[in-house]
Amino acid sequence: MVERRNKPSALATTPGLPPQPQVNTSHDNSRVTAVLPTGESVEVLLYGATVISWKDRFGTEKLWLSDAAKLDGSKAVRGGIPLVFPVFGTAPDHAATSKLPQHGFARNSRWEFLGKSSSESTGPSDTSIKLDFGLSSVTLDDKTKSLWPFTFSIIYSVTLSPENLSTSIVITNDGDQPIEFQVLMHTYLRINDISKIEVKGLEESEYIDKVDAAKAKTQSGAIAISGETDRVYTPAKGPSSPVVVSEEGEAVFSIVRDNLKDVVVWNPWTDKAAGMGDFEPKDGFKNMICVEAGSVKGWITLDPSDVFEGAQTISD
Fold first, then answer.
1. Which of 30, 88, 142, 198 could make an S-S bridge to 296, C-beta 3.0–4.6 Å?
2. Which of 40, 43, 103, 186 is catalytic?
3. What global pTM score does this model have?
4. How confident is the model at residue 126 (pLDDT cuts 50, 70, 90)?
């Protein structure tokens, strides 16, 4: 038999479209999951548009989620990336938000999944997927509307690439009066050992120490965590300079912000964790640190028809 030199290749190996990201809904359409061709994944709960999982291509989880977190829409999620809006904490002296629950209503509202879009790519290694979620005054429940009677719309986007996870928010004032608000992405990062963690990039930055009577202080050197920590930093280097979480001297996360001027660093430590019913295991504080991008010192004022945009990108 004569061997054919230019024998056609098998049909199965015929070049075609590159592999595409897969997006699925599950749990009675209450969750949206995206998986890249390279294996990275993200999962978003429509309740709060809360990112509850971000895994690398090896299946390693990057976010901390409490074992007792409620994922049934009965309360805000403990862990992942809860979205704080329109108030950080509570603000009894701020008339517009004084009646709202802690951290506002965005994390306690059901968002709408608006759709997906993927980047054009030359191969799987540079493919990304963007998931868009919407919330507006039209879709709020009557109780929330009565507590915060402003007309607004929000698009919150979660973008997954092989290198990073980005979350961005676009807030539009659709009403005829100014809106004052605060916004924050309450990111729980998963780590191995809190005693070996340093947070760098906030050196010489002013901060409010909420564990020490809200005293104003200035950061000296890298941040180490050795007890309950709750600090609101205004980074001296600006949003585009990364805040880096290192473990045993090796960078494990890098956070860059866009138009979000503050960074909250939080760890509940022993006593606070013990007092939270949805924080499990109770020693879970050893495996998490919150580095939260937001604008929470003072208030953002948004005039009628104006738009606010803010974002963070977390690289592992």
1. 88
2. 186
3. 0.92
4. confident
